[in-house]
Design goal:
The protein has 228 residues and is of the alpha/beta class. The protein is built from five helices and seven strands, in the order βαβααββββαβα. It has a single domain, classed as 3-Layer(bba) Sandwich (FAD/NAD(P)-binding domain), CATH 3.50.50. The longest helix has 19 residues. It binds flavin-adenine dinucleotide.
């Protein structure tokens, strides 16, 4: 458990990538942990889909998203986000699934395993959950749904709940500030759709990016020597 970072970001979707870029540029030591590959959720979108949002509203880190028409296709978006990660030299550990987040006196202990089954554990002062909602389906409990050919939708808030975040039983929304996106667990943030339970249709990439801006601003403020 040697590594102690300022910030661990869980999830390398568009929102986690934006958080990594902002952390890096602010001189905050960070690491992004991703259970699959970068923008794993978009990999699973329909092969020939086109986003409903225009390209410039999906951009991260100010990198232009150049597309053949005004809206990107799935492939254009995949190429774009992956190239941004590469060009920014972001610290991402792929195939690292986080299964537990725990508040400890100096910040957070983050635990999980790689897809080879190796366990890992890290410590950070702040944590941000940007896990989206597509990769943790809420299963129906019917025979056959565990087969690889079957997929499901919607997330249960296990990771957040385990860390002590209050979850609204009606909407499964995480208890958090709409100003800073910090949860009721000090130092733990929810970014993008990850904290919105059944209200996922309220949050897209375009407005999720605002959460990152506010949260990183809050982390910077708390890290400044005056507030440390
Ligand atoms: C078909 C379709 C079309 C869409 N079109 C648009 C659009 O036009 N405009 C728009 O703004 N939005 C659109 N959306 C919604 C948008 O894609 C999501 O809101 C967006 O992907 C959210 O980004 P995110 O980074 O929060 O989450 P995600 O992209 O879901 O990324 C979360 C990441 O976290 C990882 N992860 C999850 N759990 C863990 C864990 N325990 N440990 C480590 N990693 C983990 C996942 O593998 C994933 O890579 C669309 C969605 C769909 C399905």
């Amino acid at each position: 458990m040697a590594l102690m970072l300022d910030l661990v970001i869980v999830g390398a979707g568009p929102i986690g990538i934006e958080a990594g870029i902002r952390a890096r540029r602010a001189g905050i030591t960070y690491l992004i942990l991703e259970q699959g590959s970068v923008v794993n959720a978009i990999v699973g979108y329909p092969t020939y889909m086109t986003f409903f949002t225009t390209s410039e509203r999906l951009e991260v880190g100010g990198h232009p998203l150049v597309t053949a028409t005004d809206k990107p296709t799935r492939k254009e978006a995949l190429d774009y986000y992956r190239k941004v990660v590469q060009n920014e030299g972001l610290a991402v550990r792929q195939h690292h699934r986080v299964s537990r987040l725990q508040r400890v006196p100096e910040g957070f202990e983050i635990m999980g395993h790689t897809d080879r089954g190796e366990a890992f554990a890290l410590r950070s002062r702040f944590a941000a959950v940007a896990t989206g909602y597509f990769d943790t389906p809420k299963l129906l409990g019917v025979p056959g749904e565990d087969r690889p050919t079957v997929s499901g939708y919607y997330a249960e808030p296990t990771l957040l709940e385990g860390a002590g975040v209050g979850i609204d039983p009606a909407t499964l929304t995480a208890c958090h500030s709409e100003e800073t996106f910090e949860t009721n667990v000090p130092g733990l943030y929810v970014l993008g759709s990850a904290g919105y339970g059944t209200r996922t249709s309220d949050v897209f990439i375009e407005n999720g990016l605002v959460h990152v801006e506010r949260a990183l601003e809050d982390i910077r403020r708390k890290m400044s020597p005056v507030n440390a």
